[in-house]
Design a protein that fits this description.
By secondary structure, this protein is of the alpha+beta class. It contains ten helices and four strands; from the N terminus they run H-H-E-H-E-H-E-H-E-H-H-H-H-H. It is elongated and about 95 Å long.
Length: 289
Amino acid sequence: MSGNYFTRELGRILRRSPLSHLGSLAVTTLLFALFNLIWIGSRAADRYYEQLVSSLTMELFFEAEEIDDNLSRRIAILEKTPGVSSVEIISKDRARERLRERLGIDYLSKEKRNPLPISALLSFQFGFPSSESMGALERKFKAWEEVRDVSYSRLWLKTVENNREIIRNALIILLSATLVGAMLNVAVLSALLIGGKSNHLRQLRLLGAGGARLGAPYLVEGAALATLSASLSWALLLWASSQLELPALIRESGPPINEILILISAAATLGFTGALFAVIRSLGKNREK
């Protein structure tokens, strides 16, 4: 067998069955475009989740009737606590105003003494709040003798986290399905191309050609098809995003160029794997015959 078999056979593969190549290219491009949309959607969902939970606050209610030196030291510790972005001290009078604003009436107008406690309202850094981190802070602050109670939306946070996990699992299933579909599409095309030359390949086998050498052109063809499809799918999405007025959340969730290049490289590996599956299966049948 001549040394330039690889290049000659690869050229024949690309010239043979152009309609099959175009059809496979179109289907694989659409599958990768669907993958890209789901990928961007998952990034947008994560970003929205982070924005949502970052708006969560925690309120500490103190036993003290006024802000003394001891309470001032605790407040200073709160301001330096990791994950805390700001601390707002709510006096007893301010707490009464907040209650009146919420209820629309001053229920304490007949009270001689304001029974509402002094409190500290904690805001958190982006991405910090979670059931685990908030629970740890709650246990820490409740251990302080100056703290009467700690309040935050525990049930809401847990519900949001559970919903995020459900959405994430569903997206993983969809992403996996599109990747398997793309790989199978490449494998089917490679199997068809090999099947069309089964007699020729069998003869080369009899002449001593190894399976790796015979299958190499089809492996390169599969990787090239997947690379081109992935590149076209990203080019299509980038062009569409430049033409449409997308929400800021979606636009900011688009992956950077280096991540797109990694995904295209992963697509090439996927195409190579699909073609490898077809080569092993088809050449194995030829050897049995």
